[in-house]
Design brief:
The chain is an alpha/beta fold and 332 residues long. It has one domain: Ribonuclease Z/Hydroxyacylglutathione hydrolase-like (Metallo-beta-lactamase, Chain A, 4-Layer Sandwich). It is built from eleven helices and 16 strands. The strands form three sheets. A seven-stranded mixed β-sheet has the order 8-5-4-3-2-1-16. Strands 9-10-11-12-13-14-15 form a seven-stranded mixed β-sheet.
C-alpha cells in the first residue's frame, strides 16, 4: 500500500451513468468522486454514485470496512449537480457502521446564487423563493429532513447520533472583490485548500480546488470548459486532475460538419461547459504541471484512444484515470 500524500480516484464517470465493463477493453466506472489522502486524514471531493462503496474498497489507510470513515477530514463539493452529490447521504447514513469521527465532519461547497433576469421565469416552476438558488447548507439540511424516518429509528432504537450532528455544512464565502480569482476555503495541519470559480454553464457557482500539502500540490478542476482562472489555480502543481469529454463523441453526436447554426451553437455550448479531450494537454502545459490525470470521463465507455488525442501537447505524464487508481503527490 502506498504511503505519503496521494490521490485516490474513487469514481471516474462523468454524468449519471455507472459504466460496467464492456467491449474493446471498456472499464467499469462509478460516479465522480476523489479522495485526497494526507497523512492519516482523508478529504473527499464530490460524492457521485457509489462513492462510499468505492472508498470502502480502496480503504486507503487500511482501517477495514468497519472503520474506513474514521479518518475523514472534510468533504468538498465542486458544484451541486446530482451526479456530484448523490452519495453524500450514504456517507452519513453509514456513519454508525463504518467508524465516523467523533467530531462533526465539515462539508464545504457552493454558496447560493441569485437568478439572472433571463432566468427568473423559472423561479415559480421551481418553487424558488426570492429568486435565489440555495447552496450547500440547504442541500445538507434537506437531506437530513428527507431521511428523518431512518434517523429517528436509529436514534430511538440504538441511540445513534442524529444526521445533523454528524456533519457541519458550510456555504463557501465568495470573494468580495470580483477581480480576486482564487480564494482560501479551508486549512488545517495537513492541507491548505484554495478555490476558483470555473465555467460550467448555468450551473453556478462551480469550483475547482487546489490542495497544497507539505509533500506537493494537487488540483481538481471540477466540471468546466477551458478556464484561465483554473490555469492560474493550477500553476506549478504536481498533479492536475482534469475533467474531459471525448472530442470524437461530442462531434459525432451532431454528425459530420458542416453544421447548421443551431447544431454549431449546441456544440459550442458543450465545449464551453466541458473540456474536449483534444485540449486538456494544452491546458496542462499552460499551467506548468508535472502530471495530468483525466477524470469525469464522458462517455465512460470510450477507448483510451479517445482520451489520449490531446496528449501530444503536453510534455509531462498524461494519465487516463480509472476507478480506484492511486496517484502519488510528489514535490519537485
Amino acid at each position: 500500500m502506498l504511503s505519503g500524500a496521494r490521490i485516490v480516484l474513487l469514481g471516474t464517470a462523468g454524468g449519471s451513468i455507472t459504466w460496467a465493463p464492456g467491449v474493446n477493453g471498456a472499464v467499469a466506472r462509478f460516479g465522480i468522486s476523489t479522495a485526497i489522502v494526507v497523512g492519516d486524514r482523508i478529504y473527499i471531493v464530490d460524492m457521485g454514485a457509489g462513492s462510499t462503496r468505492q472508498l470502502t474498497l480502496a480503504d486507503p489507510l487500511a482501517r477495514g470496512a468497519g472503520a474506513v470513515l474514521a479518518n475523514l477530514g472534510a468533504f468538498f463539493i465542486t458544484h451541486l449537480h446530482s451526479d456530484h452529490t448523490v452519495d453524500l447521504a450514504n456517507y452519513v447514513l453509514c456513519a454508525g457502521n463504518q467508524g465516523w469521527p467523533r467530531d462533526p465532519v465539515p462539508i464545504y461547497g457552493p454558496w447560493p446564487r441569485q437568478l439572472r433576469e433571463d432566468e427568473v421565469y423559472a423561479a415559480e416552476r421551481l418553487h424558488i423563493q426570492n429568486h435565489a438558488i440555495p447552496g450547500t447548507q440547504h442541500l445538507v439540511a434537506h437531506l437530513a429532513q428527507g431521511f428523518i424516518a431512518d434517523t429517528a429509528d436509529r436514534v430511538i432504537g440504538a441511540g445513534s447520533i442524529p444526521f445533523e450532528d454528524l456533519v457541519r455544512a458550510h456555504d463557501i464565502t465568495p470573494p468580495a472583490n470580483p477581480a480576486q480569482h482564487t480564494f482560501r476555503v479551508f486549512e488545517d495541519d495537513r492541507v491548505r485548500i484554495t478555490a476558483t470559480i470555473v465555467h460550467h454553464g448555468t450551473m453556478a457557482p462551480a469550483l475547482g480546488y487546489r490542495f497544497d500539502t507539505d509533500e506537493g500540490t494537487a488540483v481538481l478542476s471540477g466540471d468546466t470548459g477551458p478556464c484561465d482562472d483554473l490555469v492560474e489555480l493550477a500553476d506549478g502543481a504536481d498533479v492536475l486532475v482534469h475533467e474531459a469529454i471525448s472530442h470524437r463523441f461530442a462531434i459525432a453526436t451532431y454528425g459530420e460538419p458542416p453544421y447548421t447554426p443551431q447544431q454549431q451553437a449546441k456544440l459550442d455550448h458543450v465545449f464551453a461547459k466541458h473540456t474536449s479531450s483534444a485540449v486538456v494537454g494544452e491546458i496542462a502545459a499552460q499551467a506548468g504541471v508535472r502530471k495530468v490525470v483525466l477524470n469525469h470521463l464522458v462517455p465512460g465507455n470510450a477507448s483510451d484512444a479517445d482520451w489520449l488525442v490531446g496528449a501530444s501537447a503536453f510534455e509531462g505524464e498524461f494519465v487516463v484515470g480509472r476507478d480506484l487508481m492511486t496517484i502519488p503527490i510528489r514535490g519537485k
